Each structure stands twice: as structure tokens, then as C-alpha cells.
Amino acid sequence: MSRSSIRTPLRRPAARRAALAGTAVLAVALTACSGGKDAGGADMGGKPETKISVNLTGKQAKAGQPVKVTLADGKLQQVNVIDSKGGKLDGKISSDGRTWTSVRKAAPGTAYSVEARDDKGGSAKADFTTAAPDKVNKLSLVPGKNSTVGVAQPLSIVFDHPVKDKAEVEKHLKVTTSNNTEGSWGWMEDWSGKSRVDWRPKEYWKSGTKVTLNADLNGVDSGTGGWFVRDYTTNFTVGKNQVVKIDLDNHRLKMFRDGQQIKDVPMSAGTPGGDKASWRGKMVLMAKEGTINMRSETVGLGDAYDKMVDYSMRMTWSGMYAHAAPWNAAYFGNTNHSSGCVGMSDSDASWVYENVQVGDPFEVTGDDAKGTQALNNGYGEWNLSWADWQAKSALKGTAQGQ
Questions:
Q1: Do the bridges between strand 111-118 and strand 88-89 make them parallel or antiparallel, or are there none, so unpaired?
Q2: CB-hemisphere CA count at 13 Å for 295?
Q3: CA 25/CA 54 separation, integer angstroms
Q4: What are the boundaries of each domain within the chain?
């Protein structure tokens, strides 16, 4: 960005120069529109020259701190700080009118222009550029924009690089809901090994709730993982109030809508007593993947199977699905005899697939399980009590969600 015209300030007395020695400020003259001449030839109208200072200067200014504009005399009326893409840093003028401070921090690798006006009609312009980041952190968001999801779907953020300063990052994540839903963030290591933070309500969402996430992260330092250089946002609507209940011991899958049972399906789950057993817990339908190739070696079960499987509905990252399993028909409703998934007939699996929503809770119960789904194995947060989930926030005890 080219430097804007800046008024040349009058020389400070020696004592004044000594007082400011070593201070990284940019002094510029705020000049009136008419009258006499200042040192640079500007029309001053006989008014004494007034100076401002900007805490960030030059081409390698330090990012990650608010921009501060300070007026030596008089009162500031307006300050505009604009980045090279036209984005504006909002800010507030202090009660004495002497200082303007941006609400957000200066982002790395960004050019900014500053324009200030005082109560006498004077104005000044300046510019600075922050140093480029050594490393940039990025993230992925779930659910996607404008999606409709089930009542158990959490907001989930996975970061490209480790987040060390979790509290600083969490402070810039704002969840807004249409009905003031109470919820909390919780940090974990994702199944992929990356840093992850999820936001879940205290209880399942109410159908029809509209949710927006604003991740105002531009200019935030995540720690060793690097800087964020942009903001992120997503929004979604909570769809039908549906719950799928899977009883491992009685070999049934039942679907409820608005508290009323609408389907009862015989099924066969994982063979108990070993690695092929199913997980239990309150799971969240992660994806409807349709017809996919399932191979046993991808889940550590050797060469037990290699099949094309229809109506596949993912429940965990580790490979637990509900799907069609016509080859297992003899066991539906009476015996758990699969490699960990919940199998049904083609017709039943087709019906469930067409009626479930991504984000619907799949509540799996029974003794015929190898344990409870892990927190990061899909969305396992519903298996924690509300107090235990809140304890995973980096801002413990802070009210969250609007």
C-alpha cells in the first residue's frame, strides 16, 4: 500500500524529544482546514498544532495487539483504521477523548491506513504494515453453512496445527442461537491427532433452532501452531426431533420422532466378546455415505471381509456403521453376529437411511459391547455429564452461547 499524505509535525522541544526516546510511536499533525501555515505549508487558521501517536509503525509492526491512536491535546471525534482489503477495525474512544483503541487486534502480514479527526476539525493520516506470520493456522468447520442437522449435532472445529493458547482462541468463538440455548466448548485431541474444540448444548437441541458461529480469529496467535489470518463463520438449522435407539441385547433398532416411535427394526450388531463387538454410547450420525466399499483390514480385523455395502450410515471414526447386511439375515432380531456394525435388511436399511438426518442421536445400549465410544471417536461428548463436559472448556465457569 502506498503511504498517504501525512502532515509534518513541528519540532518538539528537546525535553519532549527525550521523554519519547525509544517509544515506538508515529507522530503526525492534526491540522485545521483554513488559516495560517504549519511547518509543512498546511493552512492552520491560527490554531496551535496538535499531534497524535499510533502505537504501530513501519513495515514490520508487531501483530496481535490492538491499534491505539493517542491525541496530545483536544478530543478525538472519529478514527478509522482500514486494512488493505477494505476491512475496518472497530474501536472505542476513551472517556477523556484522548485515546482510541481498536476492539480487535492487528492481523499479521496486513497493511493498515489510519485516519483521525479531532474536535477542532483537524485530520491526519498514517499507515503501517504488520510483519508476515512465520506460520499460518487454518481450520475446518462442521456443520457446513446453511445445513439442516439433527438434535445431537455439535459444532466442531478441527485445526490444521496444534493450538497451545486454547483460552485465547476460545474467547474469539461466538455461538449465537435463536432461543438462547445454553452450551459449552470442550477441547480434545481429534481422532486424526489434531487439536479440536466442539460446542454442544446442555441438552439436545430444540427442533427449529437456528445457530450461527462467528470465529473472529483474524489476528489471533494460536501459539506454536501459528497465526490465524482470517475469520470463519458457519450457520445451520436444527431439523426434526428424532432419536434412534439401538438395543444390542434385544437386537432391535427403534426410531422415535417427537417422542413417538415410528419404526422398529430387527438387526444384528457386532459379535460380543472381542474386537468385533460394537461400541455403546450416545453417538451422533456423522454422515450418510450410501454405497461404499468396506474392508476389514482398515479397522484392524485382517482379511475377514471386503464388501460393497448399501445404505451406509457412519456412527464413529473407527468404522462403526448402521447399514444393509442381507448376508446376515439369519441373525436379525436374535443374535449379534457382525464385525461391529449394525446390520439390517435392505428394505429396513433403506427406510432408516431415507428418514434419518446427519446429526441425529444414535443411542446404543446393552451389555453386548466392548465399551463406550471414546470422546473423539466421532462425536462422543454426549457420553459425558454436563459438568464433565463444561470442565473441558479452556474458559471454565464462563457463560457461553446466546
A1: unpaired
A2: 4
A3: 5
A4: 14-129, 139-239+386-390, 242-367
Fold classification of 139-239+386-390 (topology level): Immunoglobulin-like (2.60.40)
Sort residue 119 into left (φ over 0), alpha (ψ -120 to 50) or beta: alpha
Tell me, yes or no, if the two domains 14-129 and 139-239+386-390 fold the same way. Answer: yes
Q: What is the pLDDT along the chain (402 residues), one digit of tens a residue?
A: 433 333 333 344 444 443 333 333 444 544 433 333 333 333 334 444 667 899 999 999 999 999 999 998 889 999 999 999 999 999 999 999 999 999 999 999 999 999 999 998 888 889 999 999 999 999 999 999 999 999 999 999 999 999 999 999 999 999 999 999 999 999 999 999 999 999 999 999 999 999 999 999 999 999 989 999 999 999 999 999 999 999 999 999 999 999 999 999 999 999 999 989 999 999 999 999 999 987 666 666 565 567 899 999 999 999 999 999 999 999 999 999 999 999 999 999 999 999 999 999 999 999 999 999 999 999 999 999 999 999 999 998 554 555
Going by C-alpha positions, the residue among 172, 25, 24, 1 that lies closest to residue 83 is 1
Whether domain 242-367 has CATH 2.40.128.20: the reply is no
Q: How far is CA 42 from CA 29, 36, 73, 343, in A?
A: 10, 8, 19, 83
Which class for 396: exposed (0-12), middle (13-18), buried (19 or more C-beta within 10 A)?
A: exposed
pTM: 0.83
Residues listed for the chain: 402
Residue 323: Cβ-neighbour burial (10 angstroms; 0-12, 13-18, 19+): buried
Torsion 376-381-386-390 (CA) sign: positive
Asked whether the beta carbons of 251 and 268 are under 8 A apart, the reply is yes
CA distance 98 to 75: 5
Q: Please, what is the Cα angle at 270 between 265 and 271, to 5 degrees?
A: 120
Q: Using an 8 Å Cβ cutoff, are 149 and 141 in contact? A: no
- Domain 14-129 fold: Immunoglobulin-like (2.60.40)
CB 30 within 8 A of CB 122: yes
Set of cell numbers at residue 27:
507522530
Tell me how far apart the alpha carbons of residues 97 and 196 are, in angstroms, rounded to a whole number.
Answer: 42
